[in-house]
Amino acid sequence: MTTRDTLRAEARALVLHGVLEAGVLRELVGGKRFDRLALDVLQLTSVFQAHRDAIAGRSGIDERYLARAEQQVDDMLTALGHKALGPQSAAAELRDRAFSLMAHTTTSAGSSATCGGSNATRSRSLRPSTPTARDAAGRRRRKTDATS
Asked: Which of these, 26, 46, 69, 129, is most buried using a 10 Å CB contact count?
């Protein structure tokens, strides 16, 4: 049984006895991915710590168990290199803001110079190439020349 399963079972029992609200269990993410497991364990440990006085003597979960659970989550996220839950560096925040600004500018402007020209130019460049009529020297013929 995993730490998340143990904490969830204890929380479910405390909800049934009216010590915790049922909304606590609805807020859990669930799933098999490591980041979701970590979020659930962090959520449950914070609930147990917030209701420490009401839970005292009614659960087998104590402060040592919660500290060990938090340490396991920290070790797991460190091992996975997962930093989405922690604060970002100043350079990462600046990079994210610059990318968001660029993405917002190019989608709202439509035909921005940073996007490579007008929508018509982009659509022409995205069309599949078709053979064009050429004259004897191998140059492209104009439409008026090609039709005659």
From this structure: 69
Question: Token pair for residue 100?
Answer: 């968001």
Query: DSSP letters of 36-89?
Result: HHHHHHHHHHHHHHHTHHHHTTT-S--HHHHHHHHHHHHHHHHHHT--TTSPPP
Closest CA to 41 of 18, 61, 19, 20: 61
Q: Give the start-to-end residue ranges of the domains of the chain.
A: 3-80
Which residue has better confidence, 50 or 128?
50
CA pair distance 59, 62, nearest whole angstrom: 8
Give the span between the Cα atoms of 125 and 127, in whole angstroms. Answer: 6
- Name the pTM for this structure: 0.52
